[in-house]
Design goal:
alpha+beta, CNF1/YfiH-like putative cysteine hydrolases, 6-stranded mixed sheet, 4-stranded antiparallel sheet, 5 helices
Length: about 250
Protein backbone atom coordinates (compact mmCIF):
# COMPACT_ATOMS: atom_id res chain seq x y z
CA UNK A 1 0.00 0.00 0.00
CA UNK A 2 1.40 3.39 -1.02
CA UNK A 3 1.89 6.08 1.58
CA UNK A 4 -0.79 8.33 0.03
CA UNK A 5 -3.45 5.60 0.08
CA UNK A 6 -5.84 5.42 3.05
CA UNK A 7 -5.57 2.47 5.37
CA UNK A 8 -8.78 0.63 6.22
CA UNK A 9 -9.71 -2.24 8.51
CA UNK A 10 -9.77 -5.44 6.47
CA UNK A 11 -10.24 -9.08 7.46
CA UNK A 12 -9.09 -11.31 4.60
CA UNK A 13 -11.00 -14.55 4.05
CA UNK A 14 -9.12 -17.44 5.68
CA UNK A 15 -9.51 -20.12 3.01
CA UNK A 16 -7.36 -21.71 0.30
CA UNK A 17 -7.22 -18.82 -2.16
CA UNK A 18 -8.74 -19.71 -5.55
CA UNK A 19 -6.69 -18.47 -8.53
CA UNK A 20 -7.19 -14.74 -9.05
CA UNK A 21 -9.81 -14.39 -6.29
CA UNK A 22 -9.71 -11.98 -3.36
CA UNK A 23 -12.29 -11.82 -0.57
CA UNK A 24 -12.86 -10.57 2.95
CA UNK A 25 -14.78 -8.23 5.23
CA UNK A 26 -14.11 -4.66 6.25
CA UNK A 27 -14.04 -3.71 9.92
CA UNK A 28 -15.41 -0.50 11.39
CA UNK A 29 -12.00 1.25 11.29
CA UNK A 30 -10.31 3.51 8.77
CA UNK A 31 -13.12 5.81 7.64
CA UNK A 32 -14.41 9.30 8.31
CA UNK A 33 -17.92 8.73 9.73
CA UNK A 34 -18.79 10.06 13.18
CA UNK A 35 -20.54 8.36 16.11
CA UNK A 36 -22.58 6.14 15.99
CA UNK A 37 -21.31 5.23 12.51
CA UNK A 38 -17.63 5.53 13.40
CA UNK A 39 -15.76 5.22 11.26
CA UNK A 40 -15.84 3.07 8.09
CA UNK A 41 -19.59 2.90 7.51
CA UNK A 42 -20.25 1.81 3.92
CA UNK A 43 -24.07 1.91 3.90
CA UNK A 44 -26.16 4.76 2.52
CA UNK A 45 -29.41 3.75 4.26
CA UNK A 46 -28.54 4.01 7.96
CA UNK A 47 -28.71 7.81 8.46
CA UNK A 48 -25.01 8.61 8.07
CA UNK A 49 -23.79 11.72 6.27
CA UNK A 50 -23.88 10.80 2.53
CA UNK A 51 -20.61 12.66 1.95
CA UNK A 52 -18.91 10.53 4.60
CA UNK A 53 -20.22 7.32 3.04
CA UNK A 54 -18.97 8.43 -0.36
CA UNK A 55 -15.53 9.14 1.07
CA UNK A 56 -15.50 5.80 2.89
CA UNK A 57 -16.32 3.96 -0.32
CA UNK A 58 -13.55 5.83 -2.10
CA UNK A 59 -11.12 4.80 0.64
CA UNK A 60 -12.27 1.21 0.32
CA UNK A 61 -11.64 1.11 -3.40
CA UNK A 62 -8.23 2.80 -3.10
CA UNK A 63 -6.97 0.73 -0.16
CA UNK A 64 -7.91 -2.62 -1.72
CA UNK A 65 -7.01 -1.53 -5.26
CA UNK A 66 -10.38 -2.76 -6.44
CA UNK A 67 -10.74 -3.17 -10.20
CA UNK A 68 -14.19 -1.54 -10.15
CA UNK A 69 -16.77 0.01 -7.88
CA UNK A 70 -18.47 -2.73 -5.85
CA UNK A 71 -21.86 -3.88 -7.09
CA UNK A 72 -23.92 -2.58 -4.16
CA UNK A 73 -27.33 -4.17 -3.53
CA UNK A 74 -30.63 -3.05 -2.04
CA UNK A 75 -30.89 -5.88 0.49
CA UNK A 76 -34.35 -6.97 1.66
CA UNK A 77 -33.72 -10.26 3.53
CA UNK A 78 -34.86 -12.27 0.53
CA UNK A 79 -33.42 -14.86 -1.84
CA UNK A 80 -32.95 -12.95 -5.11
CA UNK A 81 -29.51 -13.20 -6.72
CA UNK A 82 -28.21 -10.40 -8.96
CA UNK A 83 -26.25 -11.79 -11.90
CA UNK A 84 -25.84 -9.00 -14.43
CA UNK A 85 -23.69 -5.96 -13.76
CA UNK A 86 -26.08 -3.05 -13.05
CA UNK A 87 -26.18 0.21 -14.97
CA UNK A 88 -24.19 3.06 -13.37
CA UNK A 89 -25.98 4.27 -10.26
CA UNK A 90 -28.38 1.31 -10.21
CA UNK A 91 -28.76 -0.68 -6.98
CA UNK A 92 -30.58 -3.97 -7.67
CA UNK A 93 -33.01 -5.38 -5.12
CA UNK A 94 -31.28 -8.63 -4.13
CA UNK A 95 -29.54 -10.34 -1.23
CA UNK A 96 -26.82 -12.08 -3.21
CA UNK A 97 -24.72 -11.50 -6.31
CA UNK A 98 -22.94 -13.82 -8.74
CA UNK A 99 -20.50 -13.40 -11.62
CA UNK A 100 -18.24 -15.43 -13.86
CA UNK A 101 -16.57 -12.32 -15.23
CA UNK A 102 -13.19 -10.94 -14.10
CA UNK A 103 -13.00 -7.36 -12.85
CA UNK A 104 -16.41 -7.30 -11.15
CA UNK A 105 -16.53 -6.67 -7.40
CA UNK A 106 -19.45 -8.25 -5.54
CA UNK A 107 -20.54 -6.89 -2.17
CA UNK A 108 -23.04 -7.29 0.66
CA UNK A 109 -23.46 -5.11 3.74
CA UNK A 110 -23.93 -6.53 7.24
CA UNK A 111 -23.96 -5.66 10.94
CA UNK A 112 -24.92 -9.00 12.60
CA UNK A 113 -26.34 -10.89 9.61
CA UNK A 114 -24.06 -13.53 8.12
CA UNK A 115 -22.06 -12.71 4.97
CA UNK A 116 -21.24 -15.79 2.89
CA UNK A 117 -18.66 -15.85 0.08
CA UNK A 118 -18.65 -18.55 -2.62
CA UNK A 119 -15.91 -19.37 -5.14
CA UNK A 120 -15.32 -22.12 -7.64
CA UNK A 121 -12.03 -23.76 -6.74
CA UNK A 122 -10.51 -22.77 -10.09
CA UNK A 123 -11.58 -19.15 -9.51
CA UNK A 124 -13.86 -18.92 -12.54
CA UNK A 125 -17.10 -18.26 -10.66
CA UNK A 126 -17.73 -16.22 -7.49
CA UNK A 127 -20.69 -15.06 -5.43
CA UNK A 128 -21.58 -13.44 -2.12
CA UNK A 129 -24.78 -13.62 -0.07
CA UNK A 130 -26.37 -11.71 2.80
CA UNK A 131 -27.88 -14.30 5.14
CA UNK A 132 -29.97 -12.97 7.95
CA UNK A 133 -32.23 -15.53 9.56
CA UNK A 134 -35.10 -14.80 7.16
CA UNK A 135 -33.00 -15.19 4.04
CA UNK A 136 -31.19 -18.20 5.45
CA UNK A 137 -34.47 -19.98 6.26
CA UNK A 138 -35.94 -19.05 2.88
CA UNK A 139 -32.96 -20.47 0.96
CA UNK A 140 -30.70 -17.58 -0.08
CA UNK A 141 -27.63 -19.84 0.07
CA UNK A 142 -29.26 -22.49 -2.12
CA UNK A 143 -30.43 -19.80 -4.56
CA UNK A 144 -26.88 -18.52 -4.83
CA UNK A 145 -25.42 -21.98 -5.40
CA UNK A 146 -27.97 -22.59 -8.14
CA UNK A 147 -26.29 -19.89 -10.26
CA UNK A 148 -23.02 -21.85 -10.43
CA UNK A 149 -22.30 -24.11 -13.37
CA UNK A 150 -19.75 -25.98 -11.22
CA UNK A 151 -20.94 -28.91 -9.08
CA UNK A 152 -21.01 -28.47 -5.27
CA UNK A 153 -17.77 -30.44 -4.91
CA UNK A 154 -15.95 -27.75 -6.88
CA UNK A 155 -17.22 -24.83 -4.78
CA UNK A 156 -15.77 -23.52 -1.53
CA UNK A 157 -17.40 -21.17 0.95
CA UNK A 158 -16.23 -18.66 3.56
CA UNK A 159 -18.42 -17.48 6.44
CA UNK A 160 -17.68 -13.94 7.57
CA UNK A 161 -18.34 -12.26 10.94
CA UNK A 162 -21.92 -12.41 12.28
CA UNK A 163 -23.77 -12.36 15.56
CA UNK A 164 -22.77 -15.36 17.67
CA UNK A 165 -24.91 -18.08 19.18
CA UNK A 166 -24.78 -16.64 22.70
CA UNK A 167 -25.79 -13.16 21.55
CA UNK A 168 -28.58 -13.91 19.08
CA UNK A 169 -31.82 -14.31 21.01
CA UNK A 170 -34.84 -15.19 18.87
CA UNK A 171 -38.46 -16.13 19.39
CA UNK A 172 -40.36 -19.32 18.66
CA UNK A 173 -41.20 -18.09 15.15
CA UNK A 174 -37.55 -18.22 14.09
CA UNK A 175 -37.00 -21.74 15.39
CA UNK A 176 -40.27 -22.87 13.80
CA UNK A 177 -39.25 -21.42 10.42
CA UNK A 178 -36.07 -23.51 10.35
CA UNK A 179 -37.62 -26.68 11.72
CA UNK A 180 -40.32 -26.45 9.06
CA UNK A 181 -37.73 -27.01 6.33
CA UNK A 182 -35.30 -29.17 8.32
CA UNK A 183 -36.55 -31.01 11.37
CA UNK A 184 -32.97 -31.81 12.38
CA UNK A 185 -32.10 -28.13 12.94
CA UNK A 186 -32.87 -28.38 16.65
CA UNK A 187 -29.15 -28.39 17.52
CA UNK A 188 -28.91 -24.76 16.36
CA UNK A 189 -31.25 -23.58 19.13
CA UNK A 190 -30.77 -23.55 22.90
CA UNK A 191 -33.30 -22.27 25.45
CA UNK A 192 -32.38 -18.91 26.96
CA UNK A 193 -34.33 -19.57 30.15
CA UNK A 194 -37.13 -17.23 29.07
CA UNK A 195 -40.25 -19.01 27.78
CA UNK A 196 -40.46 -18.84 24.00
CA UNK A 197 -36.91 -17.49 23.61
CA UNK A 198 -33.91 -19.27 22.12
CA UNK A 199 -30.23 -18.69 21.40
CA UNK A 200 -29.79 -19.23 17.66
CA UNK A 201 -26.54 -20.24 15.94
CA UNK A 202 -26.43 -18.69 12.46
CA UNK A 203 -23.07 -20.28 11.71
CA UNK A 204 -24.39 -23.77 12.50
CA UNK A 205 -27.51 -23.18 10.42
CA UNK A 206 -25.48 -21.95 7.45
CA UNK A 207 -23.09 -24.90 7.61
CA UNK A 208 -26.07 -27.24 7.83
CA UNK A 209 -27.76 -25.73 4.78
CA UNK A 210 -24.53 -25.74 2.79
CA UNK A 211 -23.72 -29.34 3.70
CA UNK A 212 -27.21 -30.44 2.68
CA UNK A 213 -26.56 -28.73 -0.66
CA UNK A 214 -23.38 -30.77 -1.13
CA UNK A 215 -20.76 -28.24 -0.03
CA UNK A 216 -17.98 -29.75 2.08
CA UNK A 217 -15.29 -27.04 1.80
CA UNK A 218 -16.60 -24.52 4.36
CA UNK A 219 -14.22 -22.08 6.05
CA UNK A 220 -14.46 -19.20 8.52
CA UNK A 221 -17.31 -18.61 10.93
CA UNK A 222 -17.24 -17.98 14.65
CA UNK A 223 -16.37 -14.27 14.81
CA UNK A 224 -19.19 -12.67 16.80
CA UNK A 225 -20.04 -9.10 15.81
CA UNK A 226 -21.93 -8.47 19.05
CA UNK A 227 -19.00 -9.59 21.20
CA UNK A 228 -16.37 -7.78 19.14
CA UNK A 229 -18.01 -4.37 18.80
CA UNK A 230 -14.68 -2.54 18.88
CA UNK A 231 -13.85 -4.28 15.61
CA UNK A 232 -17.23 -4.81 13.93
CA UNK A 233 -20.62 -3.14 13.71
CA UNK A 234 -23.45 -4.87 15.60
CA UNK A 235 -27.06 -3.84 15.01
CA UNK A 236 -28.27 -5.55 18.17
CA UNK A 237 -25.27 -4.59 20.24
CA UNK A 238 -25.70 -0.91 19.39
CA UNK A 239 -29.45 -0.72 19.89
CA UNK A 240 -30.20 -0.65 16.17
CA UNK A 241 -28.20 2.43 15.13
CA UNK A 242 -24.78 1.75 13.60
CA UNK A 243 -22.86 1.48 10.37
CA UNK A 244 -22.41 -1.51 8.09
CA UNK A 245 -19.38 -3.55 7.07
CA UNK A 246 -18.88 -4.74 3.49
CA UNK A 247 -17.99 -8.28 2.55
CA UNK A 248 -16.40 -8.32 -0.89
CA UNK A 249 -15.24 -10.88 -3.43
CA UNK A 250 -13.66 -10.24 -6.82
CA UNK A 251 -11.53 -11.98 -9.37
CA UNK A 252 -8.72 -10.34 -11.28
CA UNK A 253 -8.45 -12.92 -14.05
Amino acid sequence: MCANEPSIGWLAADWPLPPGVQAGTTTRHGGVSHTPFDTLNLATHVGDDPAAVTQNRQRLRAALKLPAEPRWLDQVHGTLVAEDAPAPGECPVADAAYTNQPGEVLAVLTADCLPVVFARTDGQEIAVAHAGWRGLAAGVLESTLARFSAPPGAIQVWLGPAIGARAFEVGDEVRTAFLAVDADSTDAFEPTGTPGKWWADLFWLARRRLARAGISAIFGGGLCTASLREQFYSYRGSGGRCGRMATLVWRSR
